[in-house]
Structure formats: structure tokens, C-alpha cells
Amino acid sequence: MSILDQIQTVVIIMMENRSFDNVLGHLSMTRFGDRQNVEGLIDPENNPNYTNFLGGIGYQPFQLNDERLLHDLPHGRSFVATQLAKVGDRFTMSGFVDAYYQATGSKVNNPPSLGFLAPSDTIMSNFLATQYAVCDNWFAPLPTDTQPNRSVAYSGYSLIDDTKARPIPTMMGSFIFEWLNAHHVSWRVYHCGISFFTLFDKFHEVLGPNFRSFRRLPGDFASESLSEMPNVIFIEPEYSDSPVHFGWTPNDNHPPTPIGPGEHFLRDIYSLLTKDPVKWSRTLLITTHDEHGGFFDHVPPLAIPTSVPPGALFSEGFNNTGPRVPTLIASPWISPGTVFKDAMDHTSILQLLSEKFAGTPDYNDEVKRRRKLGIQSVSDALIQSLAQPRTDAPPPPDIISSSVEFTTTTTPQTDSQQAFAAAAKSLLMYDRKRALESFPELAHLLDK
Fold first, then answer.
1. Model pTM?
2. Cα–Cα dist 213/21, whole Å
3. Alpha-carbon separation of residue 36 from 30, 42, 62, 268 (angstroms)
4. Computed over its alpha carbons, how large is the radius of gyration of the chain?
5. How confident is the prediction for the chain on average, in pLDDT?
6. Torsional class of 346: left (φ above 0), alpha (ψ -120 to 50), beta (otherwise)
7. Contacts of 155 (CB under 8 A, 6+ apart)
8. Do the beta carbons of residue 180 and residue 155 sit within 8 Å?
9. Which of 29, 60, 369, 423 has the largest CB neighbor count within 10 A?
10. b/e 237-250 (16+ beta carbons within 10 angstroms → b)
């Protein structure tokens, strides 16, 4: 019997805008644990392989204290190309300071895009990487920003190459909810605040019974039997770019928000999932990030091209993936300190779901194409799984870290903020009564 037969519930968390080196690069550093089996940072302050140049001056990665940054970091398509700094056939990964300067006009000794966090600031991520598994070769599927990468994560395709204030178009029949429904797979979304899925214009689903407030998760988890639990659960943080934050603290890791609230969020989820040993023994928890958010990573992207799909709103395809993102996999079927080194991206999850619920890794033609080019399934990582589930569920560490409060609405500034604001208003227009029942914080937008 395979490990997939043992797993009943797959829990998926997608955070925002952090690179592997920013969150987990410390794992391989001598002063923080010296895990040489992890492709992390080695002597980052002095390693010439990591040097970024601007105006003839060299800049090195540095330890960044977790706190609210002054502003977001550049991570649109053109900025990512600058960051990857391709010379001939080689990505030098040396343009992060240049992109930061282009976007902000700021020259500082320690550009935040080169910052990496210590274990004391990423306590829960470090815990999961130590007690379960870290994927050190997991990439954002596209070298661009949030909306295109989340499109690939939830369908295999992206019909856009940038983030704009518009409904995100999707490929008919491939969107995750359509696929799960077609394959009779039970699913649920638990959201803090406004769901990102609202941006896909799937209002009939967002206001349906499968979408529930994160506050309902503890009660549902306690009251539902193992057989009643959904096969797939998406858990969403409170997005920093949401137009309103009443009753929620942004905890999605999206700069300028610090990572501390996100670490608390992961701790709360892990604590809940491990409370029932029987349910935990049938659970697989996957935590990843949509894209790198402009933070430095030293590993070149994968040379996996993506052509322009039919009906796309852009005309130039991609020649490679985006940079690496931190991804963690937790389950009692995984040994402590496991490192998965297979080449993966967000379609690795779609492969897993298709294998589990459709008997084939080929979720659709695009996922199949990426698999043939080398993208592996999460199930391939689980080949290293234990013969029997662990009987221990290590308790999560206490966390004392930075926090940030947003309690008032602000005028949207970035494209992503404008997209959230437009989606929230459209949801109110679609069905005001149900929208306010599902997302009561939207009441604060009625007079805006």
C-alpha cells in the first residue's frame, strides 16, 4: 500500500512573497546548524558567489532582523529578469540590488532584498524543516509576480504575466475547484479575511458552503469524524494587500509585513492538526509561497519554458521558472530532518492531487508537459516516507516575535492592493447580503 493510500486529507497553505534563502537559507550556515544536506547559504557575508553589484560596489547577503520593511520589494516580470541577471546561458543571480534601486531609487548599505532571516525569526518554519521535511529545489513556476504564479498553482496555466486590478482569467475546466468537483473530491477553504480566490471571479464558490472563516476550523476539526473531513483543505492567511483588516492581523509574509505573524499562523495550524493523533496520521501538510517577492536566492531557476496558452492576455512566453521559494512538508509519515531535492514547482501539488484522486499524475496537459520536462510530484518526495507513521507529534515551539496591526482601510497603492479592493467591491455587488455574512469586514468598505 502506497503512502498516498494512507493519506486522507491534504492541507495546502500558500503564503506570500519570500525566497528560500530569505526564510530557510540559514539552515546550512555553520552558526545556525550546519545542515550540509540543505542547499542553503554558505558564509553569505563573504561568499563572492553571492555578490550583487551596483555602480561598481559589491553587496553581500546579510542577516535581516524581522520587522516591518519600509515598502514592498520589486518582483514584477521585468524586475525578476534583472534579478536573475542572465549572462549568456547562465543566470548569475546578481541583480537583486540593481532591481531594488531601479524600483525605489534608494542606495543603502544593506538593501533588504539581500536580507536573510535567522532561526530566531523563522521559528516555526525552522521547526517544520527540522522535525519534518524541507524542499530545497522548489521553484515558483514563472519568473514574475503573484497572480500569474497563483494561476499556475491553481490550474497549471496562467493566462496573464502580471498582477493587475482585474478578474484573473482561468482555463476552462482546469481551475482547482472545477477539477475537484469533476472528480468528486471533497474540499474546503478556510480563510482569514478576504479570500484570494475572490480575485478569480469565482463568486459562486467563494460564497458557497465550501468557504468558511478560519475561526471555524477548530470547531469543525473537533466535531467532524475522520470520514467527514474534506479530502483537500486550503488554509488562507490574512493578506497584507487586502483593503480592510478589521479583526485580523496580516500574516501572509508579504513585505512590508514581517514574517512573525505568519510564523504564529503556521504554529496555530500545526497545533490544531496534531491535536488528534488519528486524524494527524492521515494528514499531509504542505506549506509553500507563491513567489520569491524580490528577495535574493542564490540558486538559478530551472530552464523550463512556458509558452503562451490560448486566450492569454500576454504575447511573450517564459524561458525558465522563477526563483526558489520555501516549501515545507509535514506528516507523521516523514522522518525528522528530511530533505527533498527533486525539482518541483506548484504543479507538483496538482500532480499529487491527480495521482491521489484520479490515478494519474497528469492533472491536465500543461501539468503533464511540466512533468515531462522534469517537475516532480510531491508523491515522489514521499518515496522516502516511513513504513509506519510516527507516534510522536513534536510540540511546536513558543514564539515571541514581531507583530503588525492594520485596523483602518487605506487607499490602494499597488496593483495587488487595487486588485483586492476591486474584487471585494465586485463581491459586494454580486451578492451583498451573502458577501457580508461570509466576510463581515467588507462592511467597512460600503462607504468608500
1. 0.96
2. 32
3. 9, 9, 20, 30
4. 21
5. 93
6. alpha
7. 170, 171, 174, 175, 176, 364
8. no
9. 423
10. bbbbbbbbbeebbb
What pLDDT is attached to residue 321?
98
Take residue 368 and report the three cell numbers written for it. Answer: 503533464
Write out the three cell numbers for 395.
510540540
CA neighbor of 57 nearest in space, from 97, 21, 88, 90: 97
Q: How far apart are CA 286 and CA 135, in angstroms?
A: 10
Of 293, 299, 266, 285, the C-alpha closest to 149 is 293
CA-CA distance, 214 to 116, in Å (whole number)? Answer: 30
Give φ, ψ of 345 to 5 degrees.
Answer: -145, -170
- For 29-53, the pLDDT digits (tens) are 999 977 999 999 999 999 999 999 9
> Cα–Cα distance between 426 and 43 in angstroms, integer?
49
pLDDT band at 408 (very low <50, low <70, confident <90, very high): very low
Position 116: which residue type? F
Residue type (1 letter), 376: Q
Give CA–CA dist 292/145, Å, rounded.
Answer: 8
C-alpha cell at 292: 520569491
Computed from CA positions of residues 7, 341, 141, 53, in that sequence, does the dihedral angle turn out positive or negative? positive
Please report, as a single letter, which amino acid is at residue 185.
V
Nearest to 408 by CA among 242, 246, 252, 241: 246
Q: Cell for 356?
A: 491521489
Inter-residue long-range contacts of 156-159, CB under 8 Å, 24+ positions, other chains counted: 156/347, 156/350, 156/363, 156/364, 156/366, 156/367, 156/370, 157/309, 157/364, 157/366, 158/306, 158/309, 158/312, 159/309, 159/311, 159/312, 159/313
3-class secondary structure for 283-339? EEEEEEECCCCCCCCCCCCCCCCECCCCCCCCCCCECCCCCECCEEEECCCCCCCEE
Beta carbons of 136 and 327 less than 8 angstroms apart = no
CA 365/CA 179 separation, integer angstroms? 13
pLDDT tens-place string over residues 113-163: 999 999 999 999 999 999 999 999 999 999 999 999 999 999 999 999 999
CATH numbers and ranges of domains, the chain: 3-43+118-384 (3.40.720.10)
Q: Are 199 and 419 in contact (CB under 8 A)?
A: yes
